[in-house]
Amino acid sequence: MRWLDAREQRVWRRYLLMTSQLTAQMNRQLAADAGLSLADYEVLVRLTDVPAGRLRVTRLARDLSWEQSRLSHHVSRMERRGLVAREECADDGRGALVALTEHGRTAIERAAPAHVAFVRAGVFDALTDAQVDALDAITGSVLSGLLPDERRPTRPADDAATDQNTSAGHETSSGRRTVRLGDRD
What is the CATH number of the domain that holds 124? Predict the structure, then answer.
C-alpha cells in the first residue's frame, strides 16, 4: 500500500473541503435565488445544452454520472414541479425521454445569472489565468483516468467548436442563455 504523504494528504483534504463547500453554497444560492437544487440545475443545464431540449434517460444518467434509479426519482420530483416532462421515445417506443418544459427553461434562465456570478466570484476570480489553465489540465487528467470512454459525458457540437466551454455561461445557437458548470471532458 502506497499511503499519501503529508503534502498529498493536505491537498486531498483541501480538495474535499473545497468541493463540499462549493456544493453546499451552490445549493443554498440556487435554492434562495431560484427555488432549485444543484441537482435540478444540473439536469436543466444538460437539457438546455441540446437543441431539442430533450434527452434519453440513459444518456442523461450517463452524462450526469448518476445511477438510473437516482435520475428516475429526481426527474419524478422535477416533473411534479413542472420543470421537466417524461416522453416516450418515438424512435423505438421502449426508450424514455426527459424533456425541458417552458417552466423549466424559465427557471434556469432566472437562475443562471446569479449562479454564474457565484461561480465567477467563488472560483474564477480567485485564480490567475495560469491557475485556470492548470485546473483545466488537472481535472481533465483526473477525469480521463476515472471514466471509461463509454461513460464520459458527451459534449454538444457547438461546445466542441468554441472555447466558451470553460466559462460558466454561453449563448446557445437558439440565442438562449445556458450555464455550464465547467468543461466536461
Answer: 1.10.10.10
For the chain, the straight-line distance linking the first and the last C-alpha, in angstroms and rounded, comes to 30
Task: Tell me, yes or no, whether 27 lies in a domain.
Answer: yes
Q: Which domain holds residue 65?
A: 13-153+166-179
Note the pLDDT of residue 166.
31
* pLDDT for residue 167: 32
Q: What is the pLDDT of residue 180?
A: 43
In a domain, 175, yes or no: yes
Q: How far apart are CA 62 and CA 56, in angstroms?
A: 10
